[in-house]
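Support request, please re-run this one:
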Amino acid sequence: MSIVIRDVREHELDSVLALNNAAGAAILPLDAAKIRFFFDHAEYFRVAEVDGLLAGFLIALSQDAPHDSPNFRWFQQHYDRFIYIDRIVVAGSRRGAGLGRVFYADLQSFAEVRSPRIACEVFLEPGNDIALLFHGTFGFHEAGRQLMPGVERHVSLLVKELCSWPWVRDTYGESLPEQPWLATRPLPGRQPALATGT
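Re-run finished. Output below.
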């Protein structure tokens, strides 16, 4: 099995939307406008190709994104800096093959030179022990809980502190080395650029 993790391409947004909306109750549905919002604002929007076919995606935003999610806003109120995982989706036929772990390892590599922490939430209703265990094995801990407005489901708000961040910040400040693997994805109004730690 060949797995490639790469930035999403604009012509794939319809496929990503279909994958999201086929994921079941654990993932909130999206429409074309929201997928476009993520394409325009997400610091991290990558897909997984397995044997050449789209098999999943992960979307994450910095604390500065104009995101209206009540869970994202909770993190904004409690932390000055973070990378927020809005969603991860793996195609039903590829679940259990480790793609979630591959995505999280890739996201951590992306985040640890940009932020002191990763944030996300997990629905607690219906029982979601597998998702909680998955996040716990990655070093996430619960920072709070809330009843998500509009959805009326309780969520566990999770945070993972990135132990490498203080060293990166103290060593490089806001100017990381010019390396291709540190480049950020191009967003509207911003040219492709190297990570700056902001």
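Residues 14 and 110 are 25 Å apart (CA to CA). Helices lie at 13-21, 32-41, 70-78, 99-111, 129-137, 165-172.
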